[in-house]
Design goal:
The chain has about 500 residues and is an alpha/beta fold. Helices cover about 60% and strands about 10% of the residues. The N terminus is likely disordered. It is found in: Membrane.
Amino acid sequence: MEISTVSTNNGFEGTSRPSRTSRIRSSLSTLFRDLSWALTTASDGVQDWTPFCLVVSYFAFSICIYIVASSGVIKVFWFFYLMTNTYIASATVVEAMMSVGAVHTAKKAAAKVAANNWIFPTPDAELKTLDINIVAYLPNEQDIIMDRIYYMLEKIIYPRDKLCVNVLYNTPYPIEPLESDMRNLTLKHPGLRVIKVPNSKSKADNINFYCSLDTGADVSAIYDCDHYPHPYGPRWAMERFAQDKKVDIVQGRCVIFNADTNIQTAMIAVEFDKIYAVSHPGRSAMFDFGLFCGSNGYWRTSLLKELKMDETMLTEDIDSALRAFGHGAKVVHDLNVTSFELAPTSWPAFWKQRLRWSQGWVQATIRHASLIWKRSEVEGNTRTFTQRFGLLSLLWVRESSYYLISQYLCLVFSIVVTNFPRSGTELYNLVFFQYPVAWWLFILSLVSLFGTLYITFHARSEYIRWWTIGIFTATFPVQLVLTAVMGLFGHARQISHFVKWEATRRG
């Protein structure tokens, strides 16, 4: 008689129930994973909301202080804020007037070369070798990078035997067939290098990897991936190196070319013309130093390799610019070295970009403020009083202006809350406190504003329509407040050790 075998398994044949110890370990592992996720999520939430809470608390506390302050104290603060803001506006218009010479010189030089059938003073044989570096975070710029590579290869007018285009990119995951397409281009174009930077997490990492290479270039240009340099832009930059052997960095003018997309990009376009065509060359003439601004900048390769970039800084470009200044480098701004770039087309992208810039400026200010009073450590380099004062204005005065503007806003708001004007006379008394000097300060601020924007109007790019200057002027007070708020957020982020970074979305 056949004896059947009774299986000791309670499950399917060929399987066995996990032991009690294994089940406990699995449960503990799941519990630990869930707790870790919950803590990480909570920590991220706290980090995201801490800067917002700090800024809101700052405004609420300030308004409350002014509400309970006496009228005499209010008048003291009011005059202090009005006078300091008037000083900043006056300094800005002086800076703008100093830029007129640079604008005139650039136009005159361009007209002369154009009349000579675009033959430049320096012969091709005497030009320095040039590397143009396109720096890209591939997931963010995969839709535009091939277009930019073709543009650099086909449109840039420079001796081909002295030019090489380097594509320095990083990506957290493979993106095919794009990466293969870029590598295949190098087989057709000997003047192209495509380099996937290993272990890179930032623009600074990409540039530093480039600095480890021996490309043989005399000058290295840095471009963000969304840029279209003017075909003659590199040639204008190299003319500056040829004309002045002491020049270490040439910073060009960045122009927004998608100004017609919406009102936001139009305002950013005007802002960029005000910064790159007016403020930067004006500051350079006024204080005798220039700044590398992150893109459309040309470095002597030896200096770039010596200084490199700090990947721990949110605005590694400003940090490297200030380190170059401390090193005694000569930086010039050339308005003919033009490059066209994209402005953020959505409010979230703009907000994230500017908050990163704000926090980055705070970091740079904290790290390099000592340049204002310290003696140069570079032999033969002496910082003049003018340069030190310029650094003071660029760093501390700029960062302080966020508080001056926001405090003035809080003061006015507190007065409106406690003593709302019911007639024109009351409004007049509220704004000027019946002091004639207030009129003069107010008028001087308006004249400075209109003067700066008038110069910007005449230096505007071809993408700026005349009526957008009017909108920019009318909304300038709101923009000042917005800039101050973003500056305060930058300070709050730095205080709370905010470390998140998001790339700006490209259009």
